[in-house]
């Protein structure tokens, strides 16, 4: 356990940072700050922080930056920007719990896109492939439950204390819209992962990739703001909560969180990192109840549980594929062992 202590603590901190970002963004957007301006400020701050750090860390191993590389960075940023636009809009119309629950759809959508672009093989005879496919279907079913079914409130927050009864199915158009927007966020985030994996194969300097991602997102959001936000007051960082939120988003929501997850990924692998995503649901329920006064509905509990079951099914299938690949690699090496031993004996003589 000693080797996993720091990654364990790091991933818990990363999940708290993610939920904290959701809480802060919902607060400031409820006070009138638009998601476009919020995205611009947070990514501008993150890129300023990452500019010296990324090039310093990768000063000895830094591949040349070509036009093709920059084009890849720009596409990656565009997908990430769209994911943030949909995500923050979904947070505005929904709740912290709904947001973190829907984020667990990302592995399922990533699997579907990987199959679509032939980066992942779907073998109907392999149990791991069936587990990933079934997990994807279950996760999407859970998303429908958490979006369309509210049910009774299990915890009543301050802002929902005046709600006496809830219908069996959600009649709140904002809640349903939030679910659709967050699903779009997950699709864009999944496409982002696919493109990022392709880019990192050609350009393995992770922090430089993250820097250019934040830099291009800041530019894209600035252009959007100039077109959409004609009122100069939209850029205001008053009241102070806005300034605090964008500072938190830039430092902890982008630079810190991405850095921690990247380090944990390098230390432990993707399966360990992914296992902590459902923890965000628990954190969001508690923090959303305490700081936003959100209610926690039965539909959210059932839907989140179904999504998490599907989430772990996809992860198990992927982990099984990695394990099988490792076994095949060892068997392949094992077949070459006698030849290697023979060569080593010849060298000794």
UniProtKB/TrEMBL annotation:
Keyword Transferase appears in the UniProt entry: no
Keyword tags: Membrane, Transmembrane, Transmembrane helix
Membrane association type: Multi-pass membrane protein
Main localization category: membrane
Record flagged with keyword Transmembrane helix: yes
Transmembrane parts of this sequence: 7-24, 36-57, 69-91, 97-117, 129-149, 175-195, 207-229, 241-265, 272-291, 297-315
Pfam families found in the cross-reference section: EamA
Listed InterPro entries: EamA_dom (IPR000620), EmrE-like (IPR037185), WAT1-related (IPR030184)
Subcellular location: Membrane
Domain EamA: 11-147, 180-315
GO annotations of cellular component type: membrane
Family membership noted in the UniProt record: Belongs to the drug/metabolite transporter (DMT) superfamily. Plant drug/metabolite exporter (P-DME) (TC 2.A.7.4) family.
Protein name: WAT1-related protein
Source species: Flemingia macrophylla
